[in-house]
Structure formats: structure tokens, C-alpha cells
Amino acid sequence: MNNIKRIVIVANGNISRNDISHIHKADVVIGVDCAAYWLIIHGIIPDVAFGDFDSVTKRELSVIRKRSKKVIEFPPEKDATDLELAIDHAITEHPEHVLILGALGTRLDHSFVAVQLLEKFIGSGISAVLRDEKNECALCDSKQILLKNNHYKYFSILPVTDEITVSITGCAYPLNRAKIYRGVSLGVSNEIVSQKVEITIYKGIALIMRSRD
Predict the structure, then answer these.
(1) Of the candidates 82, 102, 133, which is a domain's last residue?
(2) 73 & 158 share domain
(3) Residue 1 is assigned to a structural domain of this protein
(4) What range defines the domain where residue 162 resides?
(5) 3-class state of residue 73 by DSSP
(6) Are the CB atoms for 200 and 175 separated by under 8 Å?
(7) Hey, is 32 helix, strand or coil?
(8) Is the pLDDT of residue 11 over 90?
(9) What is the pLDDT of residues 98-149, one digit of tens each?
């Protein structure tokens, strides 16, 4: 895997056929646990199938082993989730971008830690986005531009560190070097009113979320 532009990690949370449209032919695709089988039955061969595979049947695991280009298996008793191990592997491949699908689901603990795992990409030179049908999450510690589109009406900026200092232009509620502290809702539910929003983080790390109802 040299000169990789993008790695797509598909995890075993809420995934749908719509997610397939986000996977391009040039992408390197990692299927995490049962998501590897899901990819295969939807016509996408994982470049790597990754995990302890405790959520698949013996027949499904057999299909994963036969159809995936590479399989990396771990024991169920370990100190990291399958998704974290897949992210660690992706970082070692030095792609330009990582897209994570299927990481949000009905298990709040897994969804919460999936968002936290985005911190692994800070300082790596790799941009990373976590996406499902209604949300898109990324971390920012410098500058980011959000383009207006019809899919996401709202965006929120939440501190990951104890506080952030942030300026925002092009939105319904602009800020100029404002301090937002973790545990308050000041940065929630803003709207893009121009063609783009420009976000500058002067201090700290921010979680930027785009959402739709």
C-alpha cells in the first residue's frame, strides 16, 4: 500500500447501502469484523479484513478469509477495540485521508469512543472524517473550511480539550476569537449562510460536526 490517497474503514455499526456510494474504486478498503462480510456480500472486496471476528458465524468467517485480499485476526481478549486497531493500521500506511463509515450505532459506548479515536490523527498529517447518514465528524486544531451543501443544514463546534479559542465566519452565529469551554453548549447547532464557513482554531482541539435531521 504505497502512495495511498485514501483509506476507507468500514466498521460494524450502522451501515447501509447508501454508504457504498462513498467508496471509490481507487480507495483502499478496510472491513472491520462483521463489516468485512457486509462489504463482500455487497460486491466490495476488502483490501484488509480486520478484527477478532467475534460477531460473525463460522460460515461468514470462511467467506471473509477466502474473499478478502488480506486478513488480520486478533483474539477477542485484547486492550483495544477492532476499530482502534484498524485506525492504528491505517495510520502506518500514511494515506492522505481516512474516511470511517459504520462507526456510529446503537451502542453509545462504541460511538463515543469512535469519535474520540479521531484524536489519533491529530499531528499525523492525515485528515480523517467519521460519517454516517446524518452526521459527519472531524477534529480540527488549525483551520477548516465547510462548503455549503444540501445534505447538512447544521454544524457544531465542540471543545475536545478543556477550552478552545475559535473564530467562525460565513455562518448564522459568527464568533471572533471566542473561548468555548468543554461542558457548555455555545458551539452547538450553527448554520451556514454563505457559500462557505471558515473556521480558525487558535488554541486547543475542536470537534466539528455537520448534521441533518
Answers:
(1) 133
(2) no
(3) no
(4) 140-211
(5) strand
(6) no
(7) strand
(8) yes
(9) 999 999 988 899 999 999 999 999 989 899 999 998 999 999 999 999 999 8
Residue appearing with cell numbers 489519533: 120
- On whether both 59 and 158 belong to a single domain, the answer is no
Phi, psi values for residue 208, rounded to 5°: -105, 120
CATH number, residue 152: 2.60.120.320
The SS3 assignment for 14 reads coil
Give the DSSP letter of residue 157. Answer: E
Question: Are the C-beta atoms of residues 84 and 66 closer than 8 Å to each other?
Answer: no
Q: What is the pLDDT of residues 149-202, one digit of tens each?
A: 888 989 999 999 999 999 999 999 999 999 999 999 999 999 999 999 999 999
- Helices assigned H by DSSP within the chain: 34-41, 58-67, 82-92, 108-116
Distance between CA atoms of residues 160 and 190, nearest Å? 18
Clarify whether residues 128 and 146 are in a common domain. no
Tell me what pLDDT residue 100 has.
Answer: 98
18 and 29 in contact (C-beta within 8 Å)?
no
Task: Note whether residue 34 is domain-resident.
Answer: yes
Residues 93 and 4: beta-carbon distance below 8 Å: yes
C-alpha distance from residue 101 to each of 19, 125, 157, 203 (Å): 7, 20, 21, 29
DSSP 185-200: -TTSSEEB-SSEEEEE
Q: How many folded domains does the chain comprise?
A: 2
Cross-strand partners of 201 = 166
